[in-house]
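Lay summary. Proteins are chains of building blocks that fold into shapes, and those shapes determine what they do. In this project we predict the shape from the chain. Here is one chain we studied, written as its sequence of building blocks.
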Amino acid sequence: AQERSAARRTKNGTERARLRRLDQIADELYVAGIALRAEEFITIWVLTGAILPAIALFLGAPMSLSIGLVIVGVSAPIGYVTLKRNRRLAQFGKQLSDAMTVICNALRAGQSFQTALKNVGEEMEEPISREFMRVFRETQLGMPLEASLMRLVQRTKNQDLDLMCSAVIIQRQIGGNLAAILENISDTINQRIRMRGEVKAMTSAGRLSGLIIGALPIFIIVL
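And here is the predicted shape, written in a compact code that computers can read:
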């Protein structure tokens, strides 16, 4: 009986780990704006990593080419999702200050914070409109606002958004003028964006030199 109980616990733990991994993949696809379920993406990933090399071998391609196709087939779907995700998250960061302005205006007009999130979802473009509208819909379906905001922070991994959500959660617990708090945070975000732009401009020559030097060994090997 103890062995069966241990085996059952191990099976349940494995199943929970698998479900958590599927949820993580689903969140990655959602943030990247790719309309696929986690199971569908895994199927495509396996097919590109196995079917293309098998077809190449069947057609008489050398083993080295088949191995190269395996590497490309395995890495291409993940690289595509990562690239799209990073681009959308960068765009999300640029839109966050404007979204907070919309929220502040709605709060000053007497609307609730959830309604302000809905305004962002209706008035702004993706990806931030999609993310904020998801928070609004989750709260309408009964999820606590704090939990929905934390899920949003986990998906986007944006420090400025984390600061905003922490301020909202604290304000709901102890009270205060949320519009004024978010306005101060918006100013801080704008200063950070401006500073990042200045640093990026000042280090552009060094970063380009680093990319060229880093690519030279690969170029020489290929040559």
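What the prediction tells us: Residues 63-108 form the longest helix (46 residues).
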